[in-house]
Amino acid sequence: MNSSTTKSKGADSDASSATHRPTLYLLPVPLSDVDPSAVMPQSNIEVARSVRHFIVENLRSARRFLKRCDRSIDIDSLTFDVLDEHTRPSEVAAMLAPMERGEDMAIVSEAGCPAVADPGSDAVAEAQRRGYRVCPLVGPSSILLALMASGFNGQTFAFAGYLPVDQHARTARLREMQRRIERERQTQIFIETPYRNNRLIRELTATLPHDMLLCVATDITGPRQNITTKTLARWAAEPADIDRVPSIFLLFRQD
């Protein structure tokens, strides 16, 4: 009976190993310079402590984030692959090598939630193709937090990322946003390089109807957080100085 029991336990162990699917955790990071525990649950901190292999957008900020999660983490014992805007698609598959060995991994963005307006989505797509388990963790998203606080339509909205640099294309994109707002009542969300924030607001007030609403959300979850919604006419009359402050912009028009 003991021999049979031992054999049964061994078979169970083999079956467990055969069915184990390694997990790719999508590990959010703070949007601003705050303690990670202020914007994410303790369970995220436990993942940061346990995972040994990371795909990151920025190596320096990722290492700093992990140390802020737990100063006892031995950073030098971890492995990091950088996945950013310069990474070639052909390089992504090799980054998941630890998962081929049955080990868990985590993706860490430079700020906010991985794979949302973030190159980490390429690694998630590869993990899904291979049948690995993908586990998104709770954390701050500037897109959703700004939308929540704007007072705009949260039923239908679109995130456009950065506007085109070319002025003609930029104006055309703004006009398309205006049409979507007016025809579909769709909130339009976008960002700008921080040092051009003030210029963007001037462009919006010069290009779009003055009764259109603009919400500007700066330093979300940070010590300088400010989320303000007012008409473009008021933004023109009451300009804000937000150059070099991380910001997100939302447009809408009330009936």
Defining traits:
2 domains; five-stranded parallel beta sheet; 39% helix; 10 helices; Methyltransferase, Cobalt-precorrin-4 Transmethylase, Domain 2; 255 residues; alpha/beta; single chain; disordered N terminus; five-stranded mixed beta sheet; Cobalt-precorrin-4 Transmethylase, domain 1
Name the CATH superfamily classification of the largest domain.
Answer: Tetrapyrrole methylase, N-terminal domain
CATH class of the largest domain: Alpha Beta
Low-confidence stretches: 3-17
Q: Helical element count?
A: 10
Question: What is the number of beta strands?
Answer: 10
Helicity range: 25-40%
- Run of helices and strands: HEHEHEHHEHEHEHEHEEHE
Structural class: alpha/beta
Mean pLDDT: 93
Q: Which geometry do the CA atoms define?
A: elongated
**Order of adjacent strands in the largest pleated sheet:** 3-2-4-1-5
Description:
- The chain is α/β, with parallel strands linked by helices and 255 residues long.
- It has two domains: 20-136, Cobalt-precorrin-4 Transmethylase, domain 1, CATH 3.40.1010.10; 142-252, Tetrapyrrole methylase, C-terminal domain (Methyltransferase, Cobalt-precorrin-4 Transmethylase, Domain 2), CATH 3.30.950.
- It is built from ten helices and ten strands.
- The protein has helices spanning 2-19, 42-50, 59-69, 92-95, 97-100, 121-130, 142-150, 167-184, 197-207, 232-237, and strands spanning 23-27, 53-56, 79-82, 105-108, 133-136, 157-162, 187-191, 213-218, 226-231, 247-252.
- The relative contact order is 0.14.
- One of its GO terms (biological process) is rRNA processing.
- Residues 92-233 form the Tetrapyrrole methylase domain.
- InterPro entries: 4pyrrol_Mease, 4pyrrol_Methylase_sf, 4pyrrole_Mease_sub1, 4pyrrole_Mease_sub2, rRNA_ssu_MeTfrase_I.
- Keywords: Cytoplasm, Methyltransferase, rRNA processing, S-adenosyl-L-methionine, Transferase.
